[in-house]
Amino acid sequence: MPVYTLRREVVLVAAGEMITSHIMISNRCLYMLMALLILTATASPTAAADGEGAARIVSPSRLVAGSRERVVVELTIGPSGVAVGGGVSLGFHHAASWQGLQTGDPKRDGYMTVACDAPDNLDVKWHGWHPKGMFPPDKPSGSSDSIHHQCLVAKVRRVPLKPGERVIFTLGAGEARTIVQPFADPNHEFHLTTDADGDGVFRGIAAQPTMPIHPAEAHHLAASCPATVITGTEFRLLIRAEDRFYNLATDYASTVNISDEDGSVVAQGVKLSDGIAAIAVKVASPGPKRFRLSDGKLSGRSNPCRALDFTPRYRVFWGDIHGHTTISDGLGDTAEGYFAFGRDVAGLDVCALTDHGHFDWPQTVAAVKKFHEPGRFVTILAQEAGAGEDHMNLYFRRDDAPHIGTWASRYNQFNEIVFNQYNKDGREVITGPHHFTYPRGDARYPFGAFDDRTARFVEVYSSHGTSEYPGNPRPLPGAKDADKFMQSGLAKGLRFGVIGSSDNHDSHPGRTIWGRYPGGHIAFIAEELTREAIWDALWHRRVYAASFDRIYMEFTINSQPMGSEIEVSNPCFIRYRVIGQTDVLTARLIRDNEEIRADRTDTGVIEIETDDDPPLGRDSFYYLRVEQDNGERAWSTPIWVLRD
């Protein structure tokens, strides 16, 4: 018989407030506690009956990412029963991603049913977001009920559900079954709530059934390496076996050989254990590098890098600085687990956790301090805030900074609050908007009240989509207002860095497909891998954005890096170098939002030197967009040029 983990939740009522805490207790204590709760509910006519019951996962015994399954969850009704007009519900976490769940067509994927003893006794409906008022007044984001807002609700029509009666929820009840979410989750919860008295308010049962979602079978090899390496100097190569959804294939073991682009051997006999290995390697010759991996069964390639035979002023460092855990509305139990994945699995150089609000600020601060290791792994203290539906991320210069002290109701108010709290007497925080082309919120967001005293970037790409120009690939749903896109902000004369990140909610920074699209990255052009140098790069806009693949990019005008402001009296000299993850790619040079040059290759490398005459007497801006044949892209921060 399979063993499942139960999340123990104790609800205490004191001074009119409901406080929820998760504690680990023995099964015996759990049963005693449940019995006490049942007796209390039975003995006291004033005790709330909502939230009674017990649940278990009947089948299957194992869940695998992306597989087709029929999932059966059984709820045993508590001692008060469920009245006509009341109901029961099975919910999924905000960050869960079971696509295509529906109750309308048994022939399609994801068909769901709910059954009880009496036939035709339940009205069943699927809600992508729970109906207003279904749960008690919201506790902080991340509360056990409202955070499971994707829910299958069954309302009792004509015969009350009896104490001890079993209600069966079946996901994938039709022949097509249901497709398990594609990203692994070690503690996936099926969240049961009940409305016993029929007042429309549901509460969670005391012990929720959970079950891990395992990675699928290994599909390919991948590797992460520094974007800039020096010939003859060792660097760290992190090798992974991944399933087709980019989960780490933790049950895979093999021996991998690694070669350079020219076929020369870099390393042999590297043993993967639990799907991963890290080794120190070096290269002898300068040039573009994409290390090839093979174990006789699987193959793959590392992210691209450039090997130099000299020490440059600037190097490229890869980061993912936008993501969430259960501290707010994501998966993954701890901030430490989040940073550990970014460092040890994704092979990032820089990482930040941006949980909404500050519900456990001490845990976040402690993890940022613990994992910060200059020269290897830089952590940044951060949070996501904003005004209403207009979201802004904050990145703090220090790892002991206080969280934002006042929450704004309007976008321009947010800017003033942040400036006055942090930057009035110095530079202590950097902010920027993300998923800013959604058709909602303040009409001034993001460019009508953009404030570069604190706002230094826009997040042009994340798992929500791309916000470069109207009609761009991978758009945000409903994005139509041209004034909200990045090109509009540039046309207004605003100056900002261009970044990407994932906005992952699965605690997989740097290697996530959570959300509508694969996650993104930020590349820092910095003098060294320290927090101060990374901060300096972000403030001075020496950054660029990439979607899932870590596309290597250099872009200068008159030898000045992206983010610069320069004056010229002659045609400007433009140089760019691109190394793609794939061989087929196109680099497009854009001036004042118009493409002025496009170069395509099937070798994976583009190197261009060219002159251009910007218009006289006004500022122009140039930026580079790279497009790979697999759909992944990269965007430079502009360089602003005044031709006098």
How would you sum up this structure in a few lines?
The chain has 644 residues and is mainly β. The protein folds into four domains: 5-214, Immunoglobulin-like (Sandwich), CATH 2.60.40; 220-312, Macroglobulin (MG2) domain (Immunoglobulin-like, Sandwich); 316-548, TIM Barrel (Alpha-Beta Barrel), CATH 3.20.20.140; 551-644, Immunoglobulins (Immunoglobulin-like), CATH 2.60.40. Strand 37 (552-557) and strand 38 (560-561) form a beta hairpin.
The CATH top-level class label of the largest domain: Alpha Beta
Rg, Å, rounded? 27 Å
Number of helices: 6
Q: CATH homologous superfamily name of the largest domain? A: Metal-dependent hydrolases
Overview of the structural elements:
The protein has 4 domains: about 5-215, Immunoglobulin-like; about 220-310, Immunoglobulin-like (Sandwich); about 315-550, Alpha-Beta Barrel (TIM Barrel); about 550-644, Immunoglobulin-like, CATH 2.60.40. It has 6 helices and 46 strands. Helix content is about 10%, strand content about 40%. The longest helix has 17 residues, at about 25-45. It starts with a strand and ends with a strand.
Topology overview:
Elements: E1 5-14, E2 17-22, H1 27-43, E3 54-59, E4 63-64, E5 68-69, E6 71-76, E7 87-92, E8 112-115, E9 122-127, E10 150-156, E11 166-171, E12 178-179, E13 185-189, E14 191-195, E15 203-204, E16 207-214, E17 220-224, E18 228-230, E19 235-242, E20 254-259, E21 265-272, E22 276-281, E23 287-289, E24 292-294, E25 299-302, E26 305-308, E27 315-320, H2 335-344, E28 350-353, H3 361-371, E29 378-387, E30 390-396, H4 411-423, E31 429-433, E32 457-462, E33 465-466, H5 486-491, E34 497-500, E35 521-526, H6 531-539, E36 543-546, E37 552-557, E38 560-561, E39 565-568, E40 572-579, E41 585-591, E42 594-601, E43 605-612, E44 619-628, E45 633-636, E46 639-643
